Amino acid sequence: MKTPNVVFNGVGSFVPENVVPNEHFLQHEFYMEDGTPFEVSNEEIIQKFEKITGIKERRYADKDQLNSDLGFIAAENALKNSTIDKEDLDYIIYAHNFGDIEYGTNRVDNMPSLAAKVKHKLNIKNPDVVCYDIIFGCPGWVQGVIQAYQMIRSGFCRNIMVIGAETLSRCVDPHDRDGMIFSDGAGATIVSASYDDDRKGILGFANRTDAAEELNYLAMGKSNKPGLEEEARFIKMKGRKIYEYALDEVAAAMQIALKRSGIFLENIQKVLIHQANAKMDEAILRKLGQLYDLRLEAKEMMPMTIQKFGNNSVATVPVMLDLMLKGELEGHKVKSGDDIILASVGAGMHINAIIYRM
């Protein structure tokens, strides 16, 4: 039997309408990790934050929306843009980190799985559409696509939905300036087998996990404000450590993926990388170019959404892909035959990269 190409057969996304500008945080009480208040004003904190991250605003889900609601909307949009019937799916893979969290609480709800909840919301009757979730940090959606690729190439599956969605706004410490980074959103793709003669779709990939000293670069911890919500846990990050780790290892992973795919970096048209920090992403692209003695221009090659959307974790790469395919990322378009890179880094610490031909 002929080995199929593995392609995106439908992409969809959902970005909440609630815009939260940096000015929203002017009245927050920010504390350092040791529990002492900052001696500088919130205006200065926000100014420095925007300069480093590039974030001017982000999106938060409505109070009555759960993570699985965002994922459902993205999934519906992906199905509308595909050529398959929802009953013909083999799997639904849902990448997230914190499940469904009701507004105003800090309680994680992962049962039943979010993938199963989406199947229910889509009213899929076929019992052979199997559902499961993956927790892989911010690279979760990319990892779900890699899993879908492996299952389809095995010959046992033809169509797999991969969703990446998160409501990070509900698990950030309001007294930690790092909390301004995170946001909400959802992206989904239908990954399908294609038996066209031309080589296209996923051409190669790379992934890795570093869990020695890197394990707790991103982890859950207490609020920075002493004595507040002692039992609650929030996202905590070691920003400098993550920056150094990502700069060293993400470019190397993309290089491995390129070698496995047989594609030269000179042929890459776009690099869609997880939106965590604008300066970090630009530095990673420069590092990738240095590995090949090439000068890569971020403005031309690397779409950026972090300025308006913030870091919505597993959703960032599929949201960018959807917007680019719809022509809604100014200055960034792709055509049939173009080669692109999809890459991410996040808690675990995990890194992955995919080489994809349109």
Write up this protein.
The protein has 358 residues and is α/β, with parallel strands linked by helices. It folds into 2 domains: 5-194, Thiolase/Chalcone synthase (Peroxisomal Thiolase, Chain A, domain 1, 3-Layer(aba) Sandwich), CATH 3.40.47.10; 201-357, Peroxisomal Thiolase, Chain A, domain 1 (3-Layer(aba) Sandwich). The chain has helices at 42-53, 67-80, 114-121, 140-153, 239-261, 278-291, 298-301, 306-309, 316-325; strands spanning 5-14, 18-21, 57-60, 91-95, 130-134, 159-167, 184-194, 201-209, 218-221, 234-237, 268-273, 339-346, 350-357. A hairpin with a 3-residue loop joins strand 12 and strand 13 (350-357). Helix 2 packs across helix 3 and helix 5 crosses helix 6 (278-291). The longest helix has 23 residues, at 239-261. It is globular. The mean pLDDT is 93.
Broad CATH class of the largest domain: Alpha Beta
Low-confidence stretches: none
Taking Cα atoms only, what radius of gyration do you get, to the nearest Å?
Answer: 20 Å
Sheet with the most strands? 5 strands, mixed
Calculate the mean pLDDT score and round it.
Answer: 93
Q: How would you sum up the global shape?
A: globular
CATH homologous superfamily designation of the largest domain? Thiolase/Chalcone synthase
The structure class reads: alpha/beta
Assign a percent range to the helix content: 25-40%
In sequence order, what are the helices and strands, one letter per element?
EEHEHEHEHEEEEEHEHHHHEE
What is the CATH architecture term of the largest domain? 3-Layer(aba) Sandwich
Give the percentage of residues in beta strands: 15-25%
Number of helices, where a helix is a run of at least 4 consecutive DSSP H or I residues: 9
How many independent structural domains?
A: 2
Give the strand line-up of the largest sheet.
1-7-6-4-5
Task: Give the termini separation.
Answer: 24 Å
- The CATH topology label of the largest domain is Peroxisomal Thiolase, Chain A, domain 1
Number of strands: 13
